[in-house]
Design brief:
Bound molecules: NADPH dihydro-nicotinamide-adenine-dinucleotide phosphate
Strand content: 5-15%
CATH topology of one domain: Rossmann fold
CATH superfamily of one domain: NAD(P)-binding Rossmann-like Domain
Helix content: 40-55%
CATH architecture of one domain: 3-Layer(aba) Sandwich
Number of helices: 18
Largest sheet: 7 strands, mixed
Strand order of the largest sheet: 9-8-7-6-10-11-12
Shape: globular
Number of strands: 12
Order of helices and strands: HHHHHEEEHEHEHHEHEEHHEEHEHEHHHH
């Protein structure tokens, strides 16, 4: 009989990111399969790796010069065993079926870990918002939603933002959904505050990741005070990760975008972070401009196929990869450890390659997989859905308190599940085992559907 991975590779030959995400889970849940013979009988692995539904569609739109362009739109409705499909939309030229299936698959386990009632999904387009005018972005979002609206709804599938989809895009998408359906419901999360958004949602992924890191450090009687931290990315997750690290007394010395990174030995303080937020969120500039203002810092370009990324080769205590998938290879992992890093907390989804993860696990450093440590974003999206259904808004302190509690619980759940399966301290095994068990038990309760 073919193994799960053989079946997957035969069916989806070129989906390498999806294979990578599935392989990690399949390997770590083998002991769970062995302990529960009914899982094999019910083919739970084969069922959980097959999306419930894949929607793929044409997105035609017109630029400011009257030229028509065509992009491809996707929504992967991966698993609804524990709630409506939930997961972000990514607009980036690299988007394809493999990347979205890997993200949707990870999302299933992440959402299960939050304890909220959310299934897993992901979607997006190969549209590149970079360099487009607001009107072009609006026309694209409207065309995208003109198809997507028939597949989503507040009790069916609730998309949110991801790379390239922030408050501006969510606004245009929501406006079109409302017009087409003639209803004002919590169909998208990450909305602006004035019309249904939740306080702390923009901050949630970054803050949550740092809360998770603080929990990991506490197991070794340490905290973030005085720790030197490497952060990658300059988007939503990187900005609020940096903000929370500063608040807890740490020092952030790097940030990056898709062309390169800056190193500021003196540390990126609150004033410098405010500059970065303006640069990225309003002026939509490049991180290189940081060095023109803060002249003691340095900028280095990074080629995608470089042997190692110099960002991960600086003296530091902690690393928070918060840009994109596969940004840490095994050489980077060794560089991190040789430079003193003993905590890697993933803000991005799957930023470490499987070989890099093996290095972290072998060296027994504190390593948190994104599906656990970046779950704060979707958790607060879940809280936004709850507030929308009640038609009320909780104050920031209340949302932040719940976020902190959820991250603490996820941390404990990972440790407990890992210990139960003889993998003490292995957060990756713990996250996979706990998320998997919850989802497959719900699937079995609901019969063969
Ligand atoms: P943003 O679009 O706000 O920022 C993405 C950042 O990553 C930008 O700095 C971007 O640079 C950089 N980047 C994008 N692609 C690449 C690449 N191929 N190589 C190097 N850098 C790149 O996205 P988010 O901050 O929201 O998302 C970052 C990561 O966090 C993603 O993996 C996402 O899936 C994950 N995540 C996000 C959540 C959220 O709530 N937003 C929730 C959970 C996970 P540039 O400016 O040049 O494009």
């Amino acid at each position: 009989m073919k193994t799960t991975m053989e079946l997957l590779k035969a069916r989806d030959l070129h989906e390498k990111e999806f294979h990578q995400a599935v392989q990690e889970v399949v390997e770590t849940v083998q002991p769970v399969m062995d302990r529960n013979p009914q899982y094999r009988q019910n083919a739970v692995l084969e069922r959980i790796i097959e999306p419930e539904r894949v929607i793929m569609f044409r997105v035609p739109w017109m630029d400011d010069q009257g030229q028509v362009h065509v992009n491809r739109g996707f929504r992967i409705e991966m698993n609804s065993a524990i709630g409506p499909y939930k997961g972000g939309l990514r607009f980036h030229p690299s988007v394809n079926l493999s990347i979205l299936k890997f993200l949707a698959f990870e999302q299933v386990f992440k959402n299960a870990l939050t304890t909220l009632s959310m299934g897993g999904g992901k979607g997006g387009s190969d549209f590149d918002p970079k360099g487009k005018s607001d009107n072009e972005v609006m026309r694209f979002c409207q065309s995208f939603m003109a198809e997507l609206f028939r597949h989503i709804g507040p009790d069916t599938d609730v998309p949110a933002g991801d790379i390239g989809v922030g408050a501006r895009e969510i606004g245009y998408l929501f406006g079109m959904y409302k017009k087409l359906r003639n209803e004002f419901t919590g169909v998208l999360t990450g909305k602006s505050l004035g019309w249904g958004g939740s306080l702390i949602r923009p901050e949630a992924t970054g803050y949550g990741s740092v809360y998770f890191a603080a929990e990991m450090l506490a197991t070794r009687n340490e905290n973030l005070e005085g720790k030197i931290c490497l952060v990658s990315g300059t988007g939503n997750v990187a900005q609020f990760t940096t903000e929370k690290i500063l608040e807890l007394g740490g020092k952030v010395v790097t940030l990056s975008d898709s062309t390169g990174y800056i190193y500021d030995e003196e540390g990126i303080d609150a004033g410098k972070l405010a500059f970065v937020k303006r640069l990225k969120n309003i002026q939509r500039g490049r991180i290189k401009e940081y060095t023109e203002k803060y002249v003691k810092s340095v900028y280095k370009e990074v080629e995608p196929e470089q042997e190692y990324n110099p960002l991960w080769n600086h003296k530091a205590d902690c690393a928070f990869p918060s840009a994109t998938e596969n940004e840490i290879n095994p050489k980077d992992a060794l560089n991190l450890i040789n430079n003193g890093v003993n905590l890697v907390c993933e803000g991005a989804n799957m930023p470490s390659t499987p070989e890099a993860i093996n290095v972290f696990v072998d060296k027994k450093i504190l390593y948190a997989p994104g599906k656990a440590s970046n779950a704060g974003g979707v958790a607060v999206s879940g809280l936004e859905m709850a507030q929308n259904s009640m038609r009320l808004n909780w104050p920031a302190e209340e949302v932040d308190r719940r976020l902190k509690m959820i991250m603490k619980n996820i941390h404990q759940t990972c440790l407990d599940a890992a210990a139960d399966y003889n993998e003490p301290g292995n957060y990756m095994a713990g996250a996979n085992i706990a998320g998997f068990s919850k989802v497959v038990n719900a699937m079995l309760d609901q019969g063969l559907v």
